[in-house]
Amino acid sequence: MRAWRIVFVAPFGTQPKGTTRARILPLARALAARGHMVTVLIPPYDHPPEAGRRWRTGEAAVHCLSLPPGAAAAGIRGGPGLALLSLRLARAALACRPDIIHLSKPKGVAGLAHWLLRCRRAVPRRRSPALVVDADDWEGHEGWNKYEDAYPGWQKEVFDRQERWGLQHADAVTVASRSLRERTAALGGPADRVVYLPNGLSPTDYLDWQRASGGAVRARLGLGRRPTILLYTRFFEFAPERPARVLAAVQAHLPDAALLVVGAGKYGQERRLREEARRLGLDDSVHFAGWLDRASLPGALRAADVALVPADDTVANRAKCSMKLAELLWLGLPVVAERVGEHGSYIDHPTTGLLVPPGDDQALAAALVTILSDPDRAARLGAAGHRRIARQFAWEQLAPRAEAAYTAALEL
What we know:
Layout: E1 5-9, H1 19-33, E2 37-42, E3 54-57, E4 60-64, H2 79-95, E5 100-104, H3 108-120, E6 130-135, H4 153-168, E7 172-175, H5 178-186, E8 194-196, H6 207-211, H7 215-221, E9 228-232, H8 242-251, E10 258-262, H9 270-279, E11 286-290, H10 297-301, E12 306-309, H11 315-319, H12 323-331, E13 335-338, H13 343-346, E14 354-356, H14 361-372, H15 375-392, H16 395-410
Parallel strand pairs: 1-2, 1-5, 2-4, 5-6, 6-7, 7-8, 9-10, 9-12, 10-11, 12-13, 13-14
Antiparallel strand pairs: 3-4
Helix pairs in contact: 1-16, 2-3, 3-4, 8-9, 8-14, 12-15
């Protein structure tokens, strides 16, 4: 396979959201290591301190574009600035003279850049790179639009139409879940050029996680030797009251069990968990760590004995591919999850974790009790989960799937 010039168009900055940091940058680095010339363009409208920065990740070049006036404004006031930012993205991508432009998320500034690049093909005698779209969530109606309370109705409608148009008008599509592959085909997208590309991780990015200890966090929270369940979450995937009900069911067998919550809801959903815990008399058993910086995160995650990964059976959950779950498995934590979407791809039940039917709090509790009552089995599950992620979901192993999408796009 010959080396290609590849330009990634990221959807937003490296923080506070994780797609650019956890999906785009490590994939770009893995492809550059395979001999391709790779550039990542980042529109940091959600993290303006990154604007204008340049660096390298491995052999891949990273360029955060400068922000036009108003591009960081919220709501409709930011529309003109974000449109101009999309134009800058399209121009910067073309300036690299790429063979492939890989655009992440068919909405927002990346979606508008895709439309501009597609319109350019109408100009005669202009060389046009292959346009590949990456989808890692279902963004529109039935998907994340349902959970983004801050979006006005007109914006949700724009995102839904952008997504459908983008998936239909790509030369190839990479998708993070099998559900997204099916939905793209159902839209009339390029069914024979939709490539399943789940989320992975680069082990070198997580070496310090393996050395982390949870002892200090347990001591600070007063957990002592209590059997501790971890909930690592943004609270979008399930009704916030459910983990308290699961904990109550666990305590029927293990009265000393505790729940450690790492993360918080974008709209304060953790308050509903706190209220349900209080109603059930579990105040002393639920500990909230909140959002943690990346340096503090592994120690907090390792403070638990088992991880709980609930997920309601929804379109959004079937379509997503959870990086949090991949990180938990990489850490070697035994995991109990609901059998929804890509959970069944990461977890080989009952070898590398336990899966239960969605919506069954009693089944979740029973699986947690099983692991908490058998430390040897917990250790075996954790070690097997780590091996599965390291061997099958490292970006170095997944990069050829992106190359397959590029080959299909270039053969049009």
